[in-house]
Amino acid sequence: MGNLTAEAVVDRLVPSTPRLSPDGRWVVFASSPVGRPGEHPVSGLWIAPADGSEPPREFAAAGVADRAPRWSADSAWVYFLSDRAERGTAQLYRARPDSEPERWTDWRTGVTGYVLLPEDGAVVLVAPEEKEATADPRVRVVRPGAAEAPTWDTADRPDRLWLLDLSTRTVRPLGGFGSRHVVEATARPDGHTLAVLTWSVTDQDPGLYEAGLHLVDPVTGARQDLGAPAREAESLTWWRDDAGWRLAYLGITPPGLIGGRAVFDADGHRNLTAGMSGCPIELAGSGDGRLLALFAEGLDTTVRRFDSAAVGFTELRRATGSLLDLSAGGDRVAVVASSATEPDAVHCGPPGGPLTRIGEPPRPGIRWGTQERLSYRAGDGLALDGLLVLPPGRTRADGPFPLVTLVHGGPYDRFADRFQLGWFRNGQWLAAAGFAVFLPNPRGGLGHGHAFAASVAGDVGGAEFTDLLTGIDLLVEAGVADEDRLGIGGGSHGGFLAAWAVTQTDRFKAAFVNAGVVDWPLLAATGECGRYDLALGGRENSPITHAHRIRTPVLILHGEKDTNVPLSQAELLHHALRDREHEFVVYPREGHSLRERDHQIDFLHRTRAWFSDRLGPA
């Protein structure tokens, strides 16, 4: 059996965005390594029969960033975005599965997205207006009483809609959105209407943007406004019932800023998932026009179809673990799926299953740690779940083990019962070094409905922290975890909880805080999502307020260019711990998530060594 190396973790190819041809015969998908090998991302496109009769073959290979594949209405062409002409600047390309790609745009600033119209004679582009470069001060003009939120006057101009005529290669503006920023667009399957989501600003800084939902005639450009959608609207999807075509989207359940996501009908913005215990994570239209969705339900994922008569979603298939990137064509669906010991792969089949893996399963070579599903009750009786990964070849009877608790971000996220091997979600990496790894899903997360998600509003570090301790206590009582060798770590919101944990207890002998929140009011003033961050926490539940209590050695890791949780958060914790054991690591050029291959390798080695040195022999 081979040894698991950090290089193997970050060089692993992960598929994404599988797209089925309308006739259901073919699937095309992107595939990229976990870590970026150079200055620019690299991803390739692969194509295979949807029945799994042949292995995937690379499509239009170029060693660049090929992404966002889509099929033409007749299943003859694959469109995609690529920076093969100029690295870092995406243009629109088209190719048959057996031909060389042809470039269709030469947009100076690059194309952000595109929408195919069914007639195949035109494409709607999403891209900023092409203008000569000018001075680049960022100026925000605030006019009290103005109907719209203030926008940035900046060189990073808002994305707009443009209609590309494929026969003449001419481009004209579409929709007349003025300074509003086009975030997402999708064509109704009959091609007569575009659904468009816009923001009042081009970025979320400082968390003040007003969304709008619109219908646009792709021929005349005439626009109809549907009003403000639910907060955090995304995933515009057309479907039909007996009355005709309808539009659905995902958004946050009102009334608060913090809560679970729901499926909304754009006609009146009605919640179609009210009262459901699961959480919708993706939408797709099916070949027969009905609405499909993926739902996170505890540790599992379901495929559901909307029943307009019953006004609810009917379960078609339940999958252990996580399904991602739902698409449909013909009578099939395509998803990316993984299991506890099998890496991510594209699977295709009928919506109710079974699904066929596209490509051969990986050859045996590395022995993986056993992954257990956990179910337990919080102190107040709330049902919780999580995962436990044991060292390879070991069982509970071999315990107690040094235990590392990894906390997910969000807080609206989860650990699903899937393959836990990435640069950050690295349960198998730590288990290979002899640690038991606890992956808890405390309240505030994804997969248990709106109330579960909304319960942390204004109270982060409260009951969600005791949820972690309850799970750890159960593992200690069961003889799995060694009480004297406990570690904790997390990223983003998980980094907050790791920092919070060591201000509340000395039980943990080592901790790491990656891109973690240390001061909520400061984050609200400097981060990307100010009003949302302020709705989560304040001064009293900020780790910096209680940093004088910390006695645990802390490894602080942060991206230098992080705009979501700025570097100032890590600097605060570093200065607060000046007279106590800690290490402060800043990754240059990195944002909220580490992208560069060498940085990811450093993160894997550094965090594992931090625990190995302080929790004793594993």
UniProtKB/TrEMBL annotation:
It holds the Pfam family PD40. Residues 426-616 form the Peptidase S9 prolyl oligopeptidase catalytic domain. One of its GO terms (molecular function) is serine-type endopeptidase activity. GO terms for biological process: proteolysis. It comes from the Bacteria. Gene3D superfamilies: alpha/beta hydrolase, TolB, C-terminal domain. InterPro entries: 6-blade_b-propeller_TolB-like, AB_hydrolase_fold, Peptidase_S9_cat, WD40. Keywords: Hydrolase, Protease, Serine protease. This is Peptidase S9.
